[in-house]
Specification:
There is one protein chain. The protein has 2 domains: 3-120, Phosphorylase Kinase, domain 1 (2-Layer Sandwich); 126-353, Aminoglycoside 3'-phosphotransferase, Chain: A, domain 2. The chain contains 11 helices and 10 strands. The mean pLDDT is 94. A 5-stranded antiparallel beta sheet has the order 1-2-3-5-4, sandwiched between helices. A 3-stranded antiparallel beta sheet has the order 6-8-9, with helices on one face. It is α+β, with helices and mostly antiparallel strands. It has helices at residues 12-21, 81-91, 138-155, 175-192, 198-214, 216-219, 261-267, 274-294, 302-315, 318-325, 330-346; strands spanning 29-40, 44-54, 63-69, 103-108, 115-120, 126-127, 225-227, 236-239, 248-249, 256-258.
C-alpha cells in the first residue's frame, strides 16, 4: 500500500497543521509520511503512518493511526463516519483523559461523504484482549467494564445530554421506528421460515407490541448517559503487561444518549454463550456498579442496575434482526440471535412483557 492510497488531505503539511492545532507538537514540521500497515474493515480503512520530522521535539508522535471511510465501496463512501467524527470532535475533548485514544484531527465532508480520524497509535502500549470470537478472561473483562463505567460516569445525567450532546428520541412520535422494526422482523421471519420457532416468533411479536410501553424507562431521562453502542469487548484496547496505562474504548460510530446498561447487555448477553455468561455476568455487573459509585454517580443502586440490565437484554432482541436487515454476515447475526434469546430466557425477560 503506497501513499497515493491515503486520503488527499493527508500530506506532510496537513499533518503538521493538525499536530500543531491539537498541541501534539509546538515546533518543527512533518517532512514525510509513509504507510507502514494498511487494511480494510467492513466499514473503514485503517492505516498506520510513520512520520519523519524536521526540528520537532523528542515527544512528537512517531506514528499515528488514520481511520478513513471506504471511498471505493460499491455504493459510495460510508456516511456513518460522520457520527464518529462528531464524537471525537465534540465529546472526547470534554471527557477525562485516558478513556479513548487521543484524536489529533477529525474531518467529515458533507458533500462527498468522505471522512477520516487521525488517532493516537497505541500499538506499543495496548492490545485487544483476544481474537474474535474468543472471549477475554474475567480479569480482562473487568478492566473493560470498569473503563466503560468511567466513561459513562463522565456523562451520567449531564445537563448537556440531548441538548448539545446527542438527541432524545421522541417515542410518542416515533411510529416510523416501530414500523421499521416490524418490517425488519417480517423480513427476518420470512427468510427463516420454520427455522424460527412459533415460540420465538410470538416473543418478538409481543416485544414489538410492548415497545412503546417498554420505552417508559427511557422517557424518564434519568440515570442516562452516553453509550458506545457497538460495545463488544474487541472495541477496547487493554494495556500491555507491566504498563501503567488505562484501557481505551474505541470505535464510536454508534454512540448515542441512552441507558448505560445497553452497552453491558450488548457486551455480555449478546456475545457470550450461557455457561461463561452465567459465571461472569453478575460479578461484572457488581464491578461496574462499584466503579460507577467510585466515580461519583449517586442515586442509582445495584438493584436499579439489575432492572435496567434485564430491560436492555430484552431490547437487544431487536439487534440481530437489524443486523440481518442491513446485510451483516450470518456468522454474526445468527449467533447473536441464539445467544440473546438464551440470555432473555435465563434472566426472565419475558416477565417484562406481562
Amino acid at each position: 500500500m503506497t501513499n497515493p492510497s491515503l486520503p488527499k488531505a493527508i500530506t506532510p503539511a496537513d499533518l503538521t497543521d493538525a499536530l500543531r492545532t491539537s498541541g501534539a507538537i509546538d515546533r518543527g514540521r512533518v517532512i514525510d509520511v509513509a504507510v507502514e500497515i494498511s487494511f480494510a474493515t467492513v466499514l473503514s480503512h485503517i492505516f498506520r503512518l510513520r512520520l519523519n520530522y524536521a526540528d520537532a521535539g523528542a515527544d512528537a508522535p512517531a506514528t499515528l493511526i488514520l481511520k478513513a471511510g471506504l471511498a471505493d465501496r460499491p455504493d459510495g463512501p460510508w456516511f456513518g463516519g460522520q457520527h464518529e467524527v462528531a464524537f471525537y470532535r465534540d465529546l472526547a475533548p470534554a471527557m477525562p483523559a485516558g478513556i479513548t485514544p487521543r484524536c489529533f484531527d477529525a474531518q467529515w465532508d458533507g458533500e462527498t461523504g468522505t471522512w477520516y480520524l487521525l488517532l493516537e497509535d497505541l500499538t506499543e502500549t495496548h492490545l485487544v484482549a483476544t481474537r474474535w470470537p474468543v472471549p477475554p478472561t474475567f480479569a480482562q473483562c473487568e478492566a473493560i467494564i470498569r473503563a466503560r463505567a468511567r466513561c459513562q460516569a463522565a456523562w451520567w445525567d449531564d445537563t448537556r445530554l440531548g441538548v448539545t450532546v446527542g438527541t432524545w428520541r421522541d417515542w410518542s412520535a416515533d411510529d416510523e421506528v416501530l414500523s421499521n422494526m416490524a418490517a425488519q422482523f417480517a423480513g427476518f421471519a420470512g427468510d427463516m421460515g420454520d427455522r424460527l420457532s412459533d415460540e420465538r416468533r410470538a416473543l418478538h411479536e409481543r416485544f414489538l407490541e410492548a415497545a412503546p410501553r417498554l420505552a417508559a424507562r427511557y422517557r424518564t431521562r434519568r440515570n442516562m448517559t452516553v453509550i458506545q453502542g457497538d460495545a463488544h469487548v474487541w472495541n477496547c484496547f487493554l494495556p500491555r503487561a507491566n504498563s501503567t496505562n488505562t484501557a481505551r474504548l474505541f470505535d464510536w460510530d454508534a454512540w448515542r444518549v441512552d441507558m448505560g446498561s445497553h452497552d453491558l447487555a450488548y457486551m455480555m448477553a449478546m456475545h457470550w454463550y450461557p455457561e461463561l455468561r452465567q459465571r461472569f455476568e453478575s460479578r461484572l455487573l457488581d464491578a461496574f456498579h462499584r466503579e460507577l459509585t467510585a466515580q461519583g454517580v449517586q442515586g442509582y443502586d445495584r438493584q436499579a442496575l439489575s432492572d435496567d440490565y434485564r430491560l436492555s437484554v430484552l431490547w437487544q432482541l431487536a439487534t440481530p434482526i437489524w443486523q440481518h436487515a442491513i446485510g451483516i454476515p450470518p456468522v454474526i447475526w445468527w449467533n447473536n440471535f441464539e445467544r440473546i434469546h438464551q440470555a432473555a430466557d435465563d434472566l426472565g425477560c419475558r416477565d417484562l412483557l406481562a
